[in-house]
């Protein structure tokens, strides 16, 4: 058996009482005045309660009271004026009722949709957390067997190299190369999974200073290279300084790497405004990429260039994407083969 909420029960009574007060006012008002329009007030009150049942009852009650007002009123004027006013009032009541009912239905559907969306969001977050935990555990547990393979390979190379022909030595070298590559991939998964579970520590951060430090490190590693680097001054953002350093290290290192075969190499870090949104970018004139595959760039282990052409594990941009998403920002890329690439990202302030 359904139990009526006493709060809504009292609200219903107040709305019905308001209808009868309007009826009394209508009784003492000359019939040439369209007091029936006032019944839209209890309809609006029913709208605030988001009750389709109450809206329907108020519509019927208002119509009955408007018609009853014609017969009980003591004022008498031309019939056509009375009929016109009361007919107009009833028409207004029904139109208002239809509009409000439609609006209430849309509001309830929107609330239900939002509720379902929130539940799906929570479920997706839970799944992602479980996936991150699984990746973290897997990366951690794979280290020991990989160390064993590396150890056995080293023993074969050191103690049995004289007993192996060139084919055997080549195969051991391939094992070592594969182990090194696998170690890098496991470390990347391990770091990426730790990244997604870490908490943000947002402060006002000097992005220009971080970018200069990254470029200085890259220059010290390859002092023979001549690269024209432009870094916009006084760039800052409200973000996690540790994580945003990883972002700039990856983006600037990629720009440095992919301009290695370009004469007159140029790298730029700056901003541009789009409406009220500030967009950061890292641009280069290096190898570039086919813009059709721009979305694939941010997938883990995804590479658009061979490892023999440009070194890397294919995890850097996936890490960058995770960090930007963690800051509730957006990241995307534009590029053209042989003409360079530009990576854009936002950091909500």
Keywords:
single chain, alpha+beta, Helix Hairpins, 12% strand
Characterization of the model:
The mean pLDDT is 79. The longest helix is centred in the middle third of the chain and has 81 residues, at 79-159. The chain is α+β, with helices and mostly antiparallel strands. The protein has 8 helices and 7 strands; from the N terminus they run H-H-H-H-H-E-H-E-E-H-E-E-H-E-E. The strands form 2 sheets. The chain has a 5-stranded mixed β-sheet. A two-stranded antiparallel ribbon has the order 1-3. Strand 4 and strand 5 (277-284) form a beta hairpin. It has 3 domains: 6-120; 122-197, Orthogonal Bundle (Helix Hairpins); 203-346, Histidine kinase-like ATPase, C-terminal domain (Heat Shock Protein 90), CATH 3.30.565.10. Helices cover 60% and strands 12% of the residues. The chain has helices at residues 6-27, 40-48, 52-72, 79-159, 166-197, 207-221, 241-258, 316-326, and strands spanning 203-206, 228-231, 236-239, 266-274, 277-284, 331-336, 340-346. The two termini are 52 Å apart. Helix 3 (52-72) packs antiparallel against helix 4 (79-159).
């Amino acid at each position: 058996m359904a139990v009526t909420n006493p709060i809504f029960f009292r609200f219903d009574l107040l709305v019905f009482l308001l209808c009868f007060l309007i009826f009394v006012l209508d009784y003492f008002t000359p019939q040439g005045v369209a007091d029936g329009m006032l019944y839209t007030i209890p309809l609006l009150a029913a709208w605030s309660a988001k009750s389709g049942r109450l809206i329907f009852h108020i519509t019927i009650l208002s119509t009955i009271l408007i018609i009853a007002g014609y017969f009980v009123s003591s004022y008498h004027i031309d019939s056509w004026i009375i009929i016109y006013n009361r007919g107009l009032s009833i028409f207004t009541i029904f139109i208002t009722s239809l509009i409000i009912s439609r609006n209430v239905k849309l509001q309830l559907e929107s609330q239900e949709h939002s509720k379902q969306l929130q539940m799906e969001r929570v479920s997706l977050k839970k799944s992602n957390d479980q996936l991150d935990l699984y990746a973290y555990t897997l990366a951690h547990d794979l280290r020991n067997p990989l160390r064993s393979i590396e150890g056995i390979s080293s023993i074969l190379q050191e103690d049995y190299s004289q007993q192996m022909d060139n084919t055997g030595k080549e195969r051991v070298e391939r094992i070592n190369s594969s182990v090194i590559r696998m170690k890098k991939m496991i470390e990347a998964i391990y770091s990426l999974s730790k990244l997604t579970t870490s908490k943000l520590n947002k402060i006002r951060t000097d992005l220009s200073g971080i970018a200069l430090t990254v470029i200085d490190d890259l220059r010290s590693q390859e002092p023979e290279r001549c690269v024209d680097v432009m870094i916009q001054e006084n760039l800052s953002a409200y973000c996690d300084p540790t994580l945003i350093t990883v972002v700039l290290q990856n983006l600037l290192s990629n720009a440095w790497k992919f301009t290695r075969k370009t004469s007159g190499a140029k790298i730029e870090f700056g901003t541009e405004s789009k409406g009220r949104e500030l967009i950061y970018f890292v641009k280069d004139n290096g190898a570039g990429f086919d813009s059709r595959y721009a979305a694939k760039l941010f997938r883990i282990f995804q590479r658009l260039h061979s490892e023999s052409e440009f070194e890397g594990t294919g995890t850097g941009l996936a890490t960058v994407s995770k960090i930007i998403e963690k800051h509730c920002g957006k990241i995307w890329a534009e590029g053209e083969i042989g003409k360079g690439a530009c990576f854009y990202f936002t950091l909500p302030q």
